[in-house]
Amino acid sequence: MMNTDISKPDEHGWVELNMGPQHPSTHGVLRLKVKLDGEIIKEVEPVIGYLHRNAEKICELDYYCDSLIYFDRMDYVGAMNMEVGFLEAAEKLLGIPPPERAEWIRVVMAELSRIASHLVWAGAFGLDLGMLTPFFYCFVEREKILRIFTEVCGTRQETNYMSIGGVYQDFNDKIVHDILEFTEQFPKKLEDIFSAYVKNDIFISRTKGIGILEPEVALNYGVTGPMLRASGVEYDVRKAEPYLVYDKLNFDIPVSYKKDNLARFLVRFEEMRQSIKIINQAVKKISDGPYFNPKAKKSLMIRLRGEGEVYARTESSKGEFGVYLVGDGGVKPYRLRVRSPSLKNLSILPYLAKDVMIADMVAISGTIDLVFGEVDR
Q: From 43, 278, 341, 362, which residue has the greatest number of CB atoms within 10 Å?
């Protein structure tokens, strides 16, 4: 809830208002200490750490193969991309690459996860601006993806589907059919959702020209992902430093030069269209062969040993997700550190929200797409 106990004015005549840490428009347990001059924001101080679970240190106390479950719970609405991020680092360190079939399967699941994540964001962003109906449409479509996840691995959100050396279960004909059925019907549904937003005059007035993020400022703050691309910087890890089999796929990087809330909205919707394009190509290109590297036998995974240090970067739905991993020759990571795109993106909020109205700050923070399992870790 928003704290209604407003402080006494300071020497500038500003008052301090607490927004959060339990508030529907902070997208999680975020506390914003806001200094107001009337309804105009003069300063914002984000306060984080309410969801801190010490995931990185816990991973250092567990086997490499068991660390994956903690990544599922970082960006919990886009868990498959979290798994890819950890495995890109772990497999390099351990010297156990996945077979090609597993790489194609991972791409399909990562892009379905990207769409599911963006749908959560789009629905929640609509709620931030007082739009209830699109929220239900977004979650109806997301539910179809979660049903595919359940068919693939038996669970909906914290999937624990991928593993060192491959994936735990192969695709079957039903899974492939369900995926292609979704990619066939989803584009029309996506356009319906898109129209519900862009044909709403109030939505346009709340987003167009609000929250201008200049590209040089974004780069200085370490902003990545849709927020950076909406400021005109064409940077996507899938293109800049391809992993899995993204270099064998044809897709575009959505970019806007408008730099505002609306640009960030448009970029994310175009990303969903591109993800459908990627999935359709990947499903057709899935090669025959094993879906698991025999060097990483499931019964022997706890004995996997790694030595050296690696850094792997991937493109999650929020931006560049990095995993730094150090092995000392033992069966557990010696050090593990995560680069959280949500944390970097959140750091820009005090800059974007300065001298705007408090209602506009809600719209701006909504376009950042924060998930606090990843911010706090």
A: 341
